[in-house]
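hi! just following up on the protien thing from before. the input was this:
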Amino acid sequence: MTHERDTDLQADIGDILVSEAEIAAKVVELGARITHDYGGRRVTLVSVLKGSLPFMADLMRAIDLPLRIDLMEVSSYGGSTTESSGLVRILKDLSASIEGEDVLIVEDIIDTGLTLNYLIRYLRGKNPASLRICTLLDKPARRLVEIPVDYTGFTIPDQFVVGYGLDYGELYRNLPFVGVLRPEVYGEGEPVEGEPA
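and the predicted 3d structure came back as:
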């Protein structure tokens, strides 16, 4: 079986929702706000693999503060059942203690909020001095639980998006923009867009 989409990923994009230039400008803006708000204090950025890696890499270079970074990887029990249960298994935990630290969770997208809600409770249990959330994309139409988001890049409509870290079938993460995937790529019915992406 050949994978034609492997060589022409951009052809699968219906519309560009957020351009590369818009992302770059927003990252600079968010970095400046975060730098100001933390007032010179050291911050630990926590990224949830894999979708938020491009955003985390760009954002940390736009923040003028002493920084630590850490990575977590989580998986939903039963695959797409996180849509209703929010049950999460931690595949990779933090590599260092965050007790007494100012922690900023860096997300690529927040949709239902179930997985992130679990992570917030989990990380609060590790006694950080503060815990805030920064997301590049917010999709409030799909929200099932209220999430206190401190920094939001773009609020987007309820469409299936890929690019800049977001994937479908592990493809499209390397596109430099956020685009809407053509429905014919994923067939009948919209694919489940869980968290993390």
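The longest helix spans residues 20-38.
Residues 20-156 form a domain with the Rossmann fold fold (CATH 3.40.50.2020).
cheers
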